[in-house]
Structure formats: C-alpha cells, structure tokens
Amino acid sequence: MEKVKNIYILGDGAAWIKSGTSELRSEAAECKFAMDRFHITKAVHRITKDKDERSLLLNYAKHGMTKDFKYLIEIIISQKKISEKTIREQSEYILHNFKGIATMRNEVKIGCSMEQAIQHVLASVFTSVPKAYASDHLRTYTAARMNQQNHMNMIELYLKAVDISHQERNKEDFDGCINLSAPEFDWSIFDHCYSFPYFHLNFSHLGLTVQ
Q1: How far apart are CA 201 and CA 191, in angstroms?
Q2: d(CA 51, CA 64)
Q3: Global pTM value
Q4: Which run of H or E residues covers position 162?
Q5: 17-26, 61-70, 93-102, 189-198: which range is least confident on average?
Q6: What DSSP character marks residue 182?
Q7: What is the mean pLDDT of residues 108-125?
Q8: In 3-state terms, the chain is what percent helix, strand and coil (to 5)?
Q9: pLDDT band at residue 123 using 50, 70 and 90 as cut-offs
Q10: In Å, what is the CA distance from 152 to each residue of 74, 144, 158, 180, 185?
C-alpha cells in the first residue's frame, strides 16, 4: 500500500461511504470520494423527463455550474409536470454531491458498473431477501435476467429452446410440429403473478394466450 498514492471511493453520497475517505487516507496516499455516475443520472431522470433538460442538468453538474443548475431547476418546477417536492429533494441531493461529481469527471474519469450491473441487475433480484436456488436452476435464472436486461425477446428464446430440445430428442422422427399445450411445457413462468418479473410478457402479437 505504500506504493498507492491516490484512492477513490465511489458511491451514492451516503455519509457512511464518504467517511471511508478518512479511514483510508494515510501519509502516503490521498483518499477522495467520487460520485457514482449511476446515481447522479438516476437523480436527474427523477427531476425531468425531457431529454434536453436532462442533458443540461448533467452538464451543469459535471462542470460545477451551480447557478445555471439552480436556475434550470426553478424553470422545471414552474412547469408543474413533476412534484416540486421530488424535484427539490433530487436537486439538493445533486448539489450536495457537486464536489464528488467533479472528482469523478476530472480525476477518476472512468465509470464503475458495480452498482448498476451487480446490485440492480443481480443482487436486488436474487439476494435482497433470503432465497435458495438449486445451482443448476440459478444458472438458468441469471442467464434469463441478462437476456431480459439486454432487451431480448424472452418468449422467442423459450420457443427456440423448446424447438432445439425436441430436435435433439427426436432426431429422426421430428417433423417440426410441437404441441405447445402439452403438460411438459411450463408456461406459468410468463404469468404476471410469477415471482421472476423478467419473464413477464405480452403474448398478443404472437396470437398466444397463457392460461
């Protein structure tokens, strides 16, 4: 650690995370807090739905343009499209972390996918409350989650898997026709009451109805 000169702690701006800078700072290394881009973007998206306004707010925040940021916030509030309370809370959150945003932009420069890719895509779904999975099933669930997050058509993937499975089991006799109402198919995973929401789909465009 004597060779380390700079340490950056990325996070959402919580006090307990920022306190880590004093814990890790040493005579040999400086330690600073850098605001995670995921959280700053999420806050801006809660303030306004307008793409141009979002772009301006992010630009003002990245460059520490406090006056311009506050001025635009007042304009957005006057439009009365989103709750003033929400806008005030999110804008104060951003302003409170201007220093961390500047550190991210000017010093760290690279983003970190830990929060978005690990926490919100995997951890919040699979480990936020006590759960148990068979190891074979977990691989399938996580693969499905990744496909859903990448905007893949889940029902199409399922049907392709069914088709491949039948071809492999009936290499010589398979005629390309499959009875999708057979008991062996588990269509319940696509019901909206199912516990894995990334399987939920609208079947109307396929002419299918899930009972």
Answers
A1: 8
A2: 20
A3: 0.62
A4: helix 154-169
A5: 189-198
A6: S
A7: 76
A8: 60, 5, 35
A9: confident
A10: 40, 9, 11, 21, 20
Which DSSP helix (H) or strand (E) runs through 6?
strand 6-11
In the block, which residue shows the tokens 């690990």?
A: 118
Distance separating the N- and C-terminal Cα atoms of the chain:
60
207 Ramachandran zone, left/alpha/beta (phi>0; psi -120 to 50): left
How far apart are alpha carbons 162 and 175 in whole angstroms? Answer: 14
Instruction: Specify the higher pLDDT residue, 210 or 176.
Output: 176
Cβ–Cβ < 8 Å for 35, 97 = yes
Return the closest-CA partner of residue 189 out of 151, 150, 146, 140.
140
> Which tens digits make up the pLDDT trace of 41-53?
999 999 999 999 9
Q: Where are the domains of the chain?
A: 6-112, 154-211
Q: Find the helix or strand (DSSP H, E) in which 47 lies.
A: helix 37-47
Q: Check residue 206 and give its pLDDT.
A: 47
Q: Report DSSP letters for 58-105, one per residue.
A: HHHHHTT-HHHHHHHHHHHHHHTSS-HHHHHHHHHHHHHTHHHHHHII
Q: What is the CA radius of gyration of the chain?
A: 24
Q: List Cα–Cα distances, 143 to 118, 162, 184, in angstroms.
A: 14, 16, 22
CA angle 159-165-167, nearest 5°? 105
